Amino acid sequence: MNVDTPLLVTFIVYIVATTLIGFIAYRATRNLSDYILGGRRLGSFVTAMSAGASDMSGWLLMGLPGAVFLSGLSESWIAIGLIIGAWFNWLLVAGRLRVHTEFCGNAQTLPDYLTNRFEDKSRILRILSALVILIFFTIYCSSGMVAGARLFESTFGLSYNTALWIGAFATITYVFIGGFLAVSWTDTVQATLMIFALLITPVFAILAIGDLPSALSMIKNEAPGKLDMFKGLDFTAIISLLGWGLGYFGQPHILVRFMAADSVRSIPRARRISMTWMILCLAGAVATGFFGISYFSSNPSLAAGVMQNNEAVFMELTKILFNPWIAGIILSAIMAAVMSTLSCQLLVCSSALTEDFYRAFLRPKASQTELVWIGRMMVMLISIIAIVIAFNPDNKVLSLVAYAWAGFGAAFGPVILLSLIWKRMTRNGAFAGIFVGAATIILWKTCLDHLGIYEIIPGFLFGTIAIIITSLLGKSPSDTMKAQFEKADRTYHSEV
C-alpha cells in the first residue's frame, strides 16, 4: 500500500463525516434563527468546543509550533496573552451578551444587537458594523482557503488550484446545508481532533529522543537561547504579544457562540471546558515546536522539510513519528483547524448579508424558509469571492489578514464590552468607537508600524476613549434604553 493511500482514506472519511453532520443539521434547521444561531439551544460542551475551534485556526498547528521551533520559548508570550484574553472574554462578555441580545429584540447578529441596544432608527450602526464584518471576513475566509489548499498541496502533491477547490468544497458543503448547527457540531469533532493531535505529537517526539531530561539537555547544548522566554524581547515587545488577548472582545465568530448558548447558566461550565481545552492546545502547540528543536537536532538527515519551512514542523513530525494511518488522522487536525474557523467566518458573513441587509432593507416580511435559503446563497457568494482572492495567494492578501484580528478587536471590542457594562453609552458613542478603532488599526499599520507596538493596543485604547467622550458629550440615552439595559443586567446577575 502506498503511504499516501492511508492519508487519502482518512482525509476522505473526515470530509464525508463533516458533510454527513451537515445533512443531519439540515433536518434540524427550521428557521433563520436555527440557521445562524442554532435556535439558541447549544449546551455547555458544544458552546465551549465550538468557541474554541472557531478561534484556533491553522496557525495553532502550523504558525505557533513553527515560530517556537525557529525562535524558542520567547514566542510563547502570545499564547499567554491569548489565554488571559479568552478567560476575561468568557468572564465579562459571554453571559452578559447572551442575556442582552435576547432582551434587544432577540438579536441574532452583532449589527442586529447594536441596532436594538442603542435604538438606532437610522440603522447607521447596522450598516457600519456589517461592512466591517464583510470586509475583514471576506479576506479572512480567503486566507483559510489558502491554508487548506497548502495542506492538500503538500500532503498529496496536488496542484495549488486543485487543492484550493477541494478544501473550499469540503467546508462550503456542510455550512451551506446545515448552517450554525452543522458548524457547531463539526467544531466539536474538530476541537477533539485538534487537542488529540497536539497532545500526542510532543509526547512521541520526546519518546523518540529518549526522555524529557535528554530532550531539554539537547536544546540547552545546541540552542541555549531558545530556553530563554525573554530572548530578544523588550517591554514593548512583550506588551505587544500579550496585547493579542484584547482581540477576543471583538471577534464576531467567537461572540456569536456566546449568543447561541441555551442559557446563561451554561456559561460558567462552558468557560471551564473551553479554557481547559485552550490551555492544553496552546501548551501542546508550544511543546511541539520546542521539542521539534531537539528531535531534528538529533536527526539532521530528516530535517530538510523544516529547514525549508519552519511552519511544517508539526506535519514533518507527524509523518516521521506515526504510521500512515495515525498520521492521516493527526494531519486531518490541520484541516479541522482550518475548516472550523473558515466555516464560522462564512456563516457570520452570510448572517450579516441576510439579517442586516436583505431582511433589514429589502425584504422585512420575508418568510423563514426564504431567509434560510438566502443565507445559503450568501454563503456561496462569500465563498466565491474568497476563492477568487485565494487564487492569487500572495503576501498582499496574507498581510491584510495578519491584522484582521486587530481590526475586529479594536472596532468591536470596546463597543461590545462597554455596551454590556455601561448604561450611559450612546449610539453616537458606539459609532465613534467602531470607526475610530478600525481607522486606528489601518493608519497605525500603514504609518506607525515602525514603532514596534502591536496596533490593537492603540486601536483598542483610542476606540474606548472615543466611546466615552462621545457618549458623555452627547444627549443621555432614553429612559426606555436605560430601562432595557437595567432589566437585562438584573436578569444576568440573577441567573449567574
From TrEMBL:
Pfam families in alphabetical order: SSF
Keywords: Amino-acid transport, Cell inner membrane, Cell membrane, Ion transport, Membrane, Sodium, Sodium transport, Symport, Transmembrane, Transmembrane helix, Transport
GO cellular component entries: plasma membrane
TM region positions: 6-26, 76-93, 127-152, 164-183, 195-215, 235-256, 277-297, 325-350, 371-391, 403-422, 429-446, 452-473
Topological category with respect to the lipid bilayer: Multi-pass membrane protein
Locations listed in the record: Cell inner membrane; Cell membrane
GO biological process, any: proline transport
Superkingdom per UniProt: Bacteria
Catalyzed reactions: L-proline(in) + Na(+)(in) = L-proline(out) + Na(+)(out)
GO MF term set: L-proline transmembrane transporter activity; proline:sodium symporter activity; sodium ion binding
PROSITE patterns attached to this UniProt entry: NA_SOLUT_SYMP_1, NA_SOLUT_SYMP_3
Function of the molecule: Catalyzes the sodium-dependent uptake of extracellular L-proline.
Family affiliation: Belongs to the sodium:solute symporter (SSF) (TC 2.A.21) family.
The protein's name in its UniProt record: Sodium/proline symporter
Gene of this entry: putP
